[in-house]
Each structure stands twice: as C-alpha cells, then as structure tokens.
C-alpha cells in the first residue's frame, strides 16, 4: 500500500492552467443547453453542474473533496507521489520503442506476448496515468506538462489534448441516456448506441467505439474554447502519426505487427470504461460511476477503481481516493452505489452482474435498496 501522507490546506482544489482550458460549459452555455434539450437531459445537466462545478459544502460531503494538496517539491504540483505515474509513463514510452528494436531480433512467438502486453498497457496508461494527469497535471511547469502530454500521445497513439476534451465531455454527461432526439451529452456514453434506453452490448461498445471517435468534432470544440489547445491537439496527432509512419518506413512488417495490438489496446480501454458505468445510476450524481476496490488493481492502475467517487468529485487527487471514500461511504450506501469485485476490465466476471435491461431501467428508488454487499463495502 502506498503510504500516502500528502500535506493539505483548506480551500478548493484549484484547476491548473492546462485543465482550465478544457472544462465544464460556462453557466450561460449550460442555460442555453437546458433550454434546447429535453427535461431528462436538463436534469442531468443541472446535476452535473452542481456536482462538478459547484461542489456541496465540505461539511455536507467531506473535507477531502475541498482540500488543496501542497508539496515542497519544485517539480511536482500536488505531491511527490506523482513521481510514480510519471516514471511509469517514461518506462511505458521506452517499452513502446523497445518493441520496434526487438522486432527484428527475436522470434515472432516472443513478440506476440510482448504485443499483448503493449495492448494492456495502453488501457493501463489511458485509464490511470493519462486520466489522472487530466484532472491534476503532475508538474508545476507548464512546459513539463506539455512535454509529458506529447510523450503520452506518442506512447498510446492518440492526442492527450483530444483525450482531455473527450473526457471532460464525459464528465458533463456522466454516461447519460439519450434524450428524445437520441443525443447524449457524453460522447462516449454506454447508452448512446443502445436500444430502448438500454446500455449497448459490451462487445459492440468495446470493438466499435474506436471507429466512432470523431476528431473533427473534438477539434471544433477545442477551437471554440481555446485555439492554442486546438493547435497542440493537432500537433500531438501529427507527432504520433508521424512516429508510426516513420517506424513503418523503417520496417513495414513491424507496422503490420503493431497496428492490431494498438487497436486492441484502445478496445481494452473502452471495455474498462464500459464496466465503470454499467449498473450505475445516471440520475444520481453520487452513483454515476461503478467502483471496484480490488487492491492490486488500484495500486497498479493508480486508484482508477474508485470510479463512483471520482465522478462525484473529479478533482480529488488519486492519492486521496481511499480517504474520500471513507468520508462519503454512508451517503454511497444510501444512494445504492454499485460496487463490483473484479477490476473493471473484468467486470463481466462479477457475480452479481445485472442484465442490460435491468441495469439501464433501474428506478431511482430501487437503486437505494440495493443489497449492502454490492454497495460501498
């Protein structure tokens, strides 16, 4: 277990300069959206605004949600424990390039498991390292944060800036159901392509979501908010594509080997995301996400398992997730927060996995009467 002892002080955890550039809709934009959407979508927006942009008083939620981490480090912005994901990201980048070096030197039967490890590591990086970097950038220096973002983009094969935009849109909708016109606020909601208000089949969501990504929409959204961030997003895309193309020019057989594992890695990331919300309650802020408290999973994935807690208060630092959960566990039980036993990527193995119709149509009152063993254990 990480012996987390970060220094804290009162006051809300502040958004960094980078995080500020892709954040919630402004109040005026929210009001405009509310007028244009159905009452169901409007209710989701109002709940999102209250939970994400204007947290409840600390005495009603927890002091962990309102604390501000401080460190004496001149390098890290919040805590020196962020050195752990930073070093992990560097090793992941080295592993990515090591695969190319090894390809012409070891037999295929050795490369195949190494390629599979790269696939798994893509999901691990996106949902742990990259994800936590979005909400709490690791460094004090904006230059270091930018360089880290570029490194992440090349390693996982997608723009970190674009990912941030998509992810912040995810927090605006919180896996919402489609409105009367079939639209969701959350671009990657598990209900977006489902039928009759149900969550989409996990296999379809896992293997088709990659092809549904819309870089043009992401770019337009970024450009409207901050042209500079839009520029860096495109730059990261060019650098990652350029890296892949360069490796292909040097050895086109390697590119043919790499691309399937790269695609599969992003599929695993979507699989992980599916079970972070499958069985959650889109109408209850504290129960938007589904949590897994499996210890090894959370140590390796940087406490990505505490997903209900994360959606309730997205700015809580990853090192403070256990403390935050301990302070809101009573409220979680009252709201019927769903908890699964295995890691999210193995959520289909959970012994109490609800059927899709049951998961998506569960009334609010029923969610409060869930068995205690499935609620914030």
Q: Secondary structure elements and their pairing?
A:
Elements (H helix, E strand, L loop, with lengths): L6 E3 L7 H4 L6 H10 L2 H15 L14 E3 L12 H21 L4 H28 L6 H15 L3 H14 L28 H11 L2 H11 L1 H24 L1 H24 L15 E2 L2 H6 L6 H6 L8 H15 L3 E2 L15 H6 L2 H4 L10
Summarize the structure in words.
By secondary structure, the chain is mainly α. The chain has helices spanning 17-20, 27-36, 39-53, 83-103, 108-135, 142-156, 160-173, 202-212, 215-225, 227-250, 252-275, 295-300, 307-312, 321-335, 356-361, 364-367; strands at residues 7-9, 68-70, 291-292, 339-340. It has one domain (1-377). Helices cover 57% and strands 3% of the residues. It has a two-stranded antiparallel sheet. A two-stranded parallel sheet has the order 3-4. The radius of gyration is 20 Å and the shape is globular. Residues 7-28, 30-35, 44-62 and 362-373 have low confidence and may be disordered.
């Amino acid at each position: 277990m990480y012996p987390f002892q970060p220094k804290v002080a009162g006051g809300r955890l502040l958004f960094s300069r980078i995080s500020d550039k892709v954040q919630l809709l402004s109040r005026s934009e929210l009001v405009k959206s509310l007028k244009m959407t159905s009452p169901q979508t409007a209710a989701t927006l109002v709940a999102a605004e209250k939970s994400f942009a204007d947290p409840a008083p600390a005495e009603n939620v927890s002091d962990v949600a309102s604390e501000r981490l401080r460190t004496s480090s001149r390098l890290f912005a919040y805590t020196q424990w962020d050195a752990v994901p930073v070093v992990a990201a560097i090793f992941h980048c080295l592993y990515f390039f090591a695969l190319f070096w090894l390809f012409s030197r070891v037999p295929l039967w050795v490369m195949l498991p190494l390629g599979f490890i790269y696939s798994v590591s893509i999901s691990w990086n996106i949902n742990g390292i990259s994800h936590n970097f979005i909400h709490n950038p690791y460094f004090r220096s904006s230059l270091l944060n930018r360089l880290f973002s570029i490194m992440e983009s090349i390693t996982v094969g997608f723009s970190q800036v674009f990912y941030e935009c998509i992810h912040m849109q995810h927090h605006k909708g919180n896996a919402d159901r489609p409105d009367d016109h079939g639209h969701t606020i959350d671009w990657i909601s598990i209900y977006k392509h489902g039928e009759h208000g149900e969550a989409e089949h996990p296999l379809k969501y896992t293997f088709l979501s990659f092809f549904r990504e819309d870089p043009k929409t992401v770019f337009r959204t970024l450009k409207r908010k901050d042209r500079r961030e839009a520029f860096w997003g495109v730059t990261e895309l060019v650098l990652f594509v350029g890296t892949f193309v360069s490796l292909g020019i040097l050895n086109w057989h390697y590119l043919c080997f790499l691309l399937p594992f790269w695609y599969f890695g992003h599929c695993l990331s979507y699989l992980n995301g599916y079970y972070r919300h499958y069985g959650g309650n889109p109408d209850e802020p504290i129960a938007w996400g589904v949590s897994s408290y499996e210890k090894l999973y959370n140590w390796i994935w940087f406490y990505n398992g505490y997903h209900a807690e994360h959606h309730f208060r997205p700015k809580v630092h990853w090192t403070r997730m256990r403390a935050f959960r301990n302070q809101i566990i009573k409220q979680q039980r009252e709201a019927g927060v769903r908890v699964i036993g295995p890691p999210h990527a193995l959520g289909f193995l959970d012994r109490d996995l609800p059927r899709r119709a049951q998961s998506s149509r569960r009334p609010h009152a029923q969610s409060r009467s869930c068995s205690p063993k499935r609620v914030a254990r």
